[in-house]
Fold these 2 entries.
Entry 1:
Amino acid sequence: MKKIRNMANVDGVITPVGEARIPVMDRGFLYGDSVYEVFRTYGGIPLFFDEHWERFENSARLIHLRLHPGKREMMEEIRRTFRASGAGEAGEDVYVRYCVTRGEGPVDLYPAPELPTRYVIVVKELAHWRDDFYSEGVRLAISRTRRNPINALNPNIKGGNYLNNVLGVIEARELGADDCVMLNDAGLVTESSNSNVFFVIDGELVTPSENAGHLRGLTRVALQEACSAHDLPIVTRDIPLEEAARATESFITSATREVMPVRSLTLRHGSAVEFPEGGGNLTRQAMAHYKDFVERYLREHADQRLN
Ligand code: PDD
């Protein structure tokens, strides 16, 4: 079987990822001064391309970045990079990351408006999550590090500085878990390091409201729509840690994980809440509804196929 090649595209120059170069004076490297998106393909079709672009524009707006290239050109460059990866012929789906940095400039925090931005696209093989993350569930732990407050570094900026989330996941690993759940300053649940989180509390499927401070996940939005079409409402509300601690099911969502069951949640004093292996009843329903939703989306967006 043909294997895909992991490829990068830096301002139109396509190379294997290991050979891609950006100058050390790029502000994305110096300051994390960049915005990005990640999606995956299914049968060569990007999932939620339009919605990702909208979120990308919102991130750019939030950091006062003038976006270049535009949507159509970025899609075309993603298509060229996809073709160079050989994913189409190999019949493999890919992970796509596109990023715009504020470009190269002097060492000066203030970004001169005339700096030409730089774009970077990465097309690579999909993340291979451990089988037991689905058959049993992923293990989460509450991190001591709190999620950035909205009025400090808005979590809706999907930007190149993920140190807040990196610290969360390091702590989770130190606690013997796979990933973290981060609280906000008020002790309310926000999200995991790079996925949104859901719980079943008192028989109700709940997820943190946006003012808790988390990224507006597109998998989350799609799942809300999918579940509501099947009379399975997802309540969006504040979730204090004490309530999460008496949840009976939990799962996380992201473009690369889809709907992934949670096996356990380690609390800060060391005790852990256990959830059903492979996901409880509502988790399994959510997984099935999301799968159907994606299948319908792909039927309706076949014209966006990259190969
Ligand atoms: N991460 N929260 C954070 C902080 C994220 O970085 C992500 C996505 C999500 C879920 O968003 P979505 O459902 O749109 O993927 C929530 C991607 C997958 C990443 O950075 O690799």
Entry 2:
Amino acid sequence: MKIAILGAGAMGSLYGGYLSRGNEVWMVDIWQAHVDAINEKGLYIDEADGSVTHVTPHATSDPNEVGVVDLAVIFVKSIQTTEALEKNRAVIGEHTAVLTLQNGYGNGDDICAFVPRDQVIVGTTSHGCTMKGPGHIFHAGSGPTHIGAMGEDQSTAEKVAEALRGAGFEVDCSDKVIELVWGKLFVNIAINAVTALLDVPNGYINDDANARRCAELLVREAVAVANATGMSFDPDAVCANAMAVAVGTAGNTSSMRADTLNKRRTEIGKINGAVVKKAAELGMDAPYNQLISALIEAKEDTYLK
Ligand code: NAD
């Protein structure tokens, strides 16, 4: 399979790196030093058990060098999806499947503006990675990847699942994947914005009664919106799961806290902001998620303006 990874940062490097063992993989990224390092020395993946995986995918910042691919995997930050697809249209052909495992809600809808719905595959990943430097990542955590097509026809999603399994990923392919996308969103809603605003590690969400109250208000509101779309989540169970994740990752810095600490734009628009947007489409209000979205955007203004 010919594959382009659009956004070959921490997660793109992991998926593209593993997929390059048995497929023609092109890492497409605007970070030239990373592209050069991969082309010169290959990609080094430091595994959690201390071993090192070394792979040699192609890398470029010019999508025209790649040409049309069978599969494009989107791993830019979720707020950059549309821009990345616009700038890398050269890799998308009539039959190209596009996979997103990004965090947040609405990535699949963004991709549907570029390819037919049956070719859009959404999902979640339990892997975790960080960049160590150009051509070098740390693969901190592993777990299942869940995928499914946005449309009715799951045949392309099944082929993508096979390619991922062949590369060593544990993959489940199902037409219920959108529930899992919501499920992961709820965890991000509980943890990300609150830890970023308070500048605390994930465990604080469970340990401090006020932080926990904020997280639960946000999550319960998001569950009400999800359930209005036809889902049937139990808000108590969703809150309990989010707290369990906060406890399980107690010492970790959430990606949104990392973004604010590094003075980068966050994914708020695709996390809490996505709940506000979906609520508006349904004629509902989501004032807690609206307020926290505005607070994070105001925080971004302090360093991006
Ligand atoms: P990252 O910042 O490490 O990588 C994003 C890459 O996209 C960067 O290398 C950047 O240069 C590149 N990029 C930006 N615009 C581009 C463009 N127009 N064309 C090509 N490349 C472009 O981010 P990440 O941590 O790998 O996260 C990617 C997505 O995966 C996010 O949605 C994140 O929430 C999600 N995610 C991350 C983790 C994790 O552990 N890092 C885990 C699960 C999900």
